[in-house]
Amino acid sequence: MSKVEIACFNPESAIIAFENGANRIELCDGLSEGGTTPGFETAKLVREKINIPIFVMIRPRGGDFTYSDAEFAQMKSELVKLKSLNVDGFVFGILDENDNVNIEQNKELVELAKPYPCTFHRAFDRAKDLENSLEKVIDCGFKTILTSGQKPNVSEGKENLKKLVELSNGRIEILVGGGLRSTNIEELREFTKAGYFHSSAITDDGAFANADEVVALKNR
């Protein structure tokens, strides 16, 4: 069985994921933008309904991962508000204008999130230099990196994912995600030796997690 985090873009998906054995929820909004900060009321509702860990996305908009001063201030303020709901962690990632990991801003958010752990999301896949970026993310204090191995999807990125698992050597969790499905999770787990997997479990062009897919991801 795999440890699985389901990316949920609405409360319905979070409940489906919870009821079908997901280990953790990544709660976000903005499906078409690849995930943005969910609304406070949405997060509150989900927290009331489910008791597995909820990690909340902090991302003010789609597009790149370099933010203006105003956007960074918004990220800090939303994180503080959402923290009051007793969520279990946060998901974000900031790059500078040269696509390097922005150590200063990421560290500031990681500090603000304490005692809750943080995941550096797929901004990692846009960052330059796999090895160097890994060390920077670890230095910032993140507990997890969500990545497809700096390739468009996990199948293409599997060599890099295996390398990241080896390089991280237990210092940070490598969360494998980006085109992950029940059809390829088994092969990826064996090849990469990663211990945690991430999927939206959306099997059509809709917005909701598929219960059977959540079960299949868990049981493969």
Describe the fold and architecture.
One of its GO terms (molecular function) is copper ion binding. This is PF03932 family protein CutC. The chain has 220 residues and is of the alpha/beta class. The protein has a single domain, classed as TIM Barrel, CATH 3.20.20.380. Helices cover 38% and strands 15% of the residues. The chain is built from 8 helices and 8 strands, in the order βαβαβαβαβαβαβαβα. α3 links the parallel β3 (54-57) and β4 (89-92).
CATH class: Alpha Beta
Strand content: 15-25%
Q: How far apart lie the N and C ends?
A: 6 Å
Helical stretch tally: 8
Helix-residue proportion: 25-40%
Mean pLDDT: 98
Shape label: globular
Instruction: Report the uncertain regions.
Output: none
What's the gyration radius in Å?
Answer: 16 Å
**What is the CATH homology-level superfamily?**
Copper homeostasis (CutC) domain
H-E string: EHEHEHEHEHEHEHEH
> How many structural units, i.e. domains?
1
Q: Please give the order of strands in the largest beta sheet.
A: 1-2-3-4-5-6-7-8
Structural class per helix/strand content?
alpha/beta
Here the CATH topology equals TIM Barrel
Quick recap of the structure?
The protein is an alpha/beta fold and 220 residues long.
